[in-house]
């Protein structure tokens, strides 16, 4: 599953949000994801921005002010939900408080995404433990103990649903040297869950490697223009980049196969022509005994496999053989 992370790269503009949906559809992503929140419930007015937010926005206003400018309303979310329906792409959204998740549930959203910053939000996780939707849980900034606690809380009401863990490094951008994709296997074996990767790197390599390592979900930020002002534009992919990213992942998926060792049609044809079989190394008369002196192995098109040479040695030739003629039963 490839998720086009629109996030807040709509700059608070519903029409831009729809264009991001169009971009995700054009790239043939499986889903497009937004962020739904109420700023007053998310942050205090005096909270400063993170370093990357200051760097990427180029201004030093508060995190509260920045988030307020990027906030979409419940009505906007509903319109995006139905717009995604009309475009045949799955609508997803992170949320940051119980009220927003309840609204997404009422809309009919099938998968709920928990962002990394909410993995220790007891009240929110407890409320989600009562909902039936599948969960994608981002694990950025979290220890394994915190991930364990979150999973136990989400599963405390024994709802039958899937929880997918997204390996995530909450740095924007993430250096390749910091990605540590092998954590995915640790998450998989420790918690016995499907795993994915929230890719905050620049470029393709980490995402493709994650798919090769078994990621079932890939999430990547998208934007219409990296030069726009905003916290995430500069670490996002523009339309052509993202389309190539999706196509490359699909090609990796093709290459992974199903794990069964079977021969292709061409291999079946090539096998006869490149494997060696038992042949006469000199003329052999009917009645002669097969020995190492008169039989050997060469490419001859078909015949008796050399793996049976000990079975053939000591037998009598039933017919005459010319040099290089294949040995017959």
TrEMBL record:
SUPFAM superfamilies in the record: AFP III-like domain (SSF51269), Aldolase (SSF51569)
A matching Pfam family: NeuB
UniProt EC number: 2.5.1.56
GO molecular-function terms, A-Z: N-acetylneuraminate synthase activity; N-acylneuraminate-9-phosphate synthase activity
Signal peptide: none
NCBIfam families xref list: NeuB_NnaB
Name this protein carries in UniProt: N-acetylneuraminate synthase
């Amino acid at each position: 599953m490839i998720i086009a992370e629109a996030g807040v790269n709509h700059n608070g503009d519903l029409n831009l949000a729809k264009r991001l949906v169009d971009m995700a559809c054009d790239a043939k992503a499986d889903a497009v994801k937004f962020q739904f929140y109420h700023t007053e419930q998310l942050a205090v007015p005096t909270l400063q921005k993170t370093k990357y937010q200051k760097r990427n926005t180029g201004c030093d206003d508060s995190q509260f002010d920045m988030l307020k400018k990027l906030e979409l309303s419940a009505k906007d979310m509903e319109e995006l939900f139905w717009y995604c329906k009309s475009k045949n792409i799955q609508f997803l959204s992170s949320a940051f408080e119980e009220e927003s998740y309840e609204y997404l549930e009422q809309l009919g959203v099938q998968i709920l995404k928990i962002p990394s910053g909410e993995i220790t939000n007891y009240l929110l996780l407890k409320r989600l433990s009562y909902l039936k939707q599948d969960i994608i849980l981002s694990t950025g900034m979290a220890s394994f103990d915190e991930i364990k606690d979150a999973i136990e809380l989400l599963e405390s009401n024994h709802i039958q649903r899937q929880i997918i863990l997204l390996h995530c490094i909450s740095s924007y951008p993430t250096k390749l040297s910091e990605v540590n994709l092998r954590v995915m296997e640790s998450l998989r074996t420790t918690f016995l869950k499907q795993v994915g990767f929230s890719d905050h790197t620049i470029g393709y390599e980490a995402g493709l490697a994650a798919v090769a390592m078994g990621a079932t979900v890939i999430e990547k930020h998208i934007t219409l223009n990296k030069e726009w002002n905003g916290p995430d534009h500069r670490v996002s992919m523009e339309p052509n980049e993202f389309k190539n990213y999706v196509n490359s992942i699909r090609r990796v998926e093709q290459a992974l196969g199903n794990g069964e060792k079977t021969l292709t049609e061409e291999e079946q044809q090539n096998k006869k022509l490149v494997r060696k079989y038992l042949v006469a190394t000199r003329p052999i008369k009917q009645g002669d005994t097969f020995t190492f002196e008169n039989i050997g192995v060469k490419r001859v098109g078909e015949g008796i496999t050399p793996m049976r040479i000990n079975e053939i040695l000591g037998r009598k030739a039933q017919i005459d053989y010319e040099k290089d003629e294949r040995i017959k039963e």
